[in-house]
Each structure stands twice: as structure tokens, then as C-alpha cells.
Amino acid sequence: MMLKITDLNVHYGFIHALKGIDMEVNEGEIVTLIGSNGAGKSTTLGAISGLVKASKGKIEFEGENITNLPAYKVVSKKISLSPEGREVFPALSVEENLRLGAFTRSDKAEINQSFERVYDLFPRLKERIKQPAGTLSGGEQQMLAIGRALMSRPKLLLLDEPSMGLAPNLVLMIFDLIESINKQGTTILLIEQNANMALSVAHRAYVLETGKISLSGDAKELMNDPRVKSAYLGEIHET
Amino acid sequence: MKEKKSLNLLAPFESFVDKFKVPLSILVGAFLIAVPFLGASRVAMRNLVMIFLYAMLGMGLNVLLGYVGQVSLGHAGFYAIGAYTSAILTTTYGWSFWTGAIAGACVAALIGFLLGLPTLRLSGTYLTIVTLGFGEIVLMVLRQWESVTNGNYGIRSIPVPELFGWELTLSNGGFYWLILFLSTVTAIACYTIKNSNAGRTLIAIKEDELAATMMGIKTTRYKILAFVVSAFITGLAGAYYSVINNGYIEPNNFVFNYSIQILSVVIVGGMGTIRGMYFGSALLMMFPQVFRFLNQWRFVIYGLLLVLMMQFRPQGALGWQSTLPYKLPRRAKKALAEREKAKTVQ
Fold first, then answer.
1. Is A164 at the interface with chain B, CB within 8 A?
2. Residue in B closest to A151 by C-alpha
3. Domain annotation covers residue B23
4. What is the ipTM of this complex?
5. CATH of segment(s) A1-78+155-162+186-239
6. Which of A192, A217, B15, B148 has its CA 20 to 30 Å from the CA of residue B268?
7. Of A99, A119, A130, the CB nearest to B200
């Protein structure tokens, strides 16, 4: 088991955002966490990556306790987050953005390999090496955000709503890329509102509702679960 | 839309500059060095010296404001520390200007480090307020610590710098060449920082601190680094100021107004740029001179100008992004060519 979360609780002041979450991610998997707005999806990622303090519970990565480790140290444990809303550095060029992604690494040759890998995955970024990231289109910025997260050569890649605000054909492309990144050996924890797409690429899934896990299991099975269908896939079914 | 038009007007100028980069910079450089031989008046020379001095001060604050995005309202404090350290060392202890100036810059940097350690954990506005307080504290210390700073009387008869027995003064052009040298060195240093790994990291923090943290950057450490560099440059400028002010400095030379003036240079010129510091300084230093005929109205106009500037050109006078089509690096060109080839083969 790669990532193990036990009884994770997060409070924002008086608001009890996560009420005891138990989750596991195994090596080589794509695991998705779906749920509506305010269910606590981003909070969960925040807690893993050290941006949000856990008030109770434990997060273990490869057997090591990483609960409440500062965010900049979590990165060096080979966990990388591509944040929600494509937070690229707009004034820096594509190449500089990627170089910052490799901030925790110092091995030049291997960093160059990572550059090649990212350019292989996203040839469009290669054409725009010197272009300021702020002038890229939404889809390209998303590619850059994912590529940048890959530059630290993570074992576990956390993706926060990679399809947000993208055109349908780009959404398909991003999910294709997520699958190929996974096939190259990176474990992925994916957060999505687009439950349909997320369940179609994931191996396993957790459904989060107001701070609690309400359902979990095999992604394909969940896709056919009537409760998931009615709540997240927009299908009306007779009762 | 309006702005786009003005940018297009700039493009021919920019491509001209880009094309003749080397001869133009040699020409401008030669002209700047030759200025003292052109028979300019003392007043003109003094104005030129002040322009370069404030350009240097602007570059100092720019490291903090333009690169890492932290606002300081207390840079007159570092300016004062550099000036007083150097002045005390040269008058009381007989040091030369050169060693005194470096010591002044180092003391300013050290104080910057000590101040930055606890305060740079604060964000945005809170940091600004702390620096505001810092400037006032420095002033208070200068006024009260009479045994060292001579209080409100200030320090007198600060010797002029000497270079191999040649005394640098305003009338022989020495002051001018010295500040030309100092500001050029500062500009080169700032350029190097901006285009280094550290500079990229600083800009990343300014753009998005959260995302920068997610890259594994310890943001506090880099903010402190910027603070120290900024304080060093400002301290060095202060040491220079201590010798050009008729050998006399007093606490009133370092009041809050000067922090604001430095800030204005950076904002008017264009945060994050180096050329903007020279331009902003020239604009702000010349304005009160040129518009002297407006009498007491000139500061009203000056204020109005700043307000209009913020309204219509918040990125600063020279804060434009290059309008030239960007040049593809060789690697990208090769990749593109290969791809075209592959396409035609198919």
C-alpha cells in the first residue's frame, strides 16, 4: 500500500470539513475521489500535500507518517500536486515553469530526461518553450500544470480537477494523458466533479459526501451503482 | 484596447533597439561616461547624480517589490543604516570610503536579515506595516543615540572618497562616475539575479505563493534572501549618499518621505524591470525641477500624476512585455522541423 489515510479529520475554525476519512491508494493505481461541491475533496488533497492541517488522524506514505508535514517537505517525499484552477506562473515561460517543478531535484541529466518525458507527453508544450505561461490557452495551461507536477518525478501524483473549465474534446485528451501517465508507472489520486470521466479511467473510487466517505469500491461497479448514477451522473432512475 | 494600440506603436522602436543592441549600448555608454566633459553646470550634474542614485535605490527595492512581490515602506531605514555606518566608520575610525561603504551595505544587509527572519512569515499588508515601523524605529535610534550618531545634529565633515590619491568631488565628475559605476554594477547584479535559478524562484513566489510551495520551495527562505539583497543595495546607496551631501548627514535625510520616493520610482518606472528604474527615477527627480514655475502647485500636479498613472498604467511607464515576436530556441525549431518532416512522410 502506497498511501494510507486513517480517520482523517480537518477543521476550518468551527467548520468540521472532514469527519474521519479512511482511504487507501495502492501502487500503480488510479484512484478517484468524487463528490459534489463542498464535500471535502480538495481539503483531502490539501491535507495530504500539507497545505491544510489535520486536526486528527494519520496519513502514511510508503509506511512513513507524513501527517502535517510542511508542504515543501511533502514534495521531496515524491508526492506532487497539480492544483485546482491551473495555477501556473503566468509571467514565467513554459520551460521556466517546468524547471521550477524540478526544484527539489539536482541531478541535471535526470532532469533533462524528465523534460523529454513531459515534452513527449505534451508535444504542444515543446512548441511553446519560451512563451509566457499566461499566454497559453486553458488546455495548454492544464497540460503545463500536470507537466510541472511530473517534473519532480513523483511516485504519487495528486490531480485536483484537471478537467475544470476545459472544452469537451480537451477533457477527453487530458483523461487520455492521465491514463498514459499512469501506465508509465505513476500512481494517481484524481479529484473530479466530472464523475463520469473520472470513473471511466480510474481503477477504484471513493465517493465523498459532506466530509464522509459514503461509498467506495471498484470504479466500474460504482459507475453502475444507482446511488452514484442519480447523484453524480445525472441519470434519473425510477424508485 | 487603447493599450494595445500604444504597444503597437512601440514595436518598431523596440525592434530597432533589438537590432542595433551592441552599437547602441556602446554609444549610450560612451555618452554617459563623457557627460562630465560636456560642460554641464553644477546643478545639472547634481540632478544627474540624484537620478542615478534613485535608480540604484529603485533597483534595491525592486528586488523585493518587483521580483518577490513584497512591499516595504521602510527602505529609508536601510538607506540610513548604510549612510550612518559608512559615515561613522570614515569619520571616527578613519576608514576609507570603499571599506566603509561595503561595511555599511553589509550592516544594512545584516539588519535586513534579522528583521526579515521573524517578519517575512507575515504576508502582504502586515509585512508592509512592520517595515513602516522599522523605518520609524531607525529614525528614532538615529535621533536618540547621541553618543554614536550625534543625534539631530547629524554627522559632519565626512571625507570624500579617494581613488589612488585622486579626490572624487561633484565638480571634477568623480561623484558622477562613482554613481554611474555603482548603479551599473547594481543593474548587472539585478539582471543576473533575475535570470538565475533564484530569480525564477522569487518570481514564482510573487506570482503564486501556494503553487510555489507545491514545487517544494521554502518560500520564507527566498523572501529573506530577497530582503537581504535589497537591504544590501539600499545600504550601499546610503553610503554613497553620505559622501555626496556636502559631507553632512542628519536624521532628516532619511524620513518616511524618502521611503515613499523610492517606492514611487519603482512603481512609476515599472515593477520588475531594470530599465524602468532609470526611467522612473529620471521622471521623479526631474519633475520638481522642470515644473518649478508652478510654485506650490507642483506637488499637487505630482500627486495627480501618480494617481493617473495608477489608474491608467498600473504596470509602470516602462513595464511593458516585449512586443517582439518571440524567438524560438534552437531545440524547439528542430523539434518542429522534425515533426513537419514526419507529417510529409506520412
1. no
2. B215
3. no
4. 0.71
5. 3.40.50.300
6. B15
7. A99
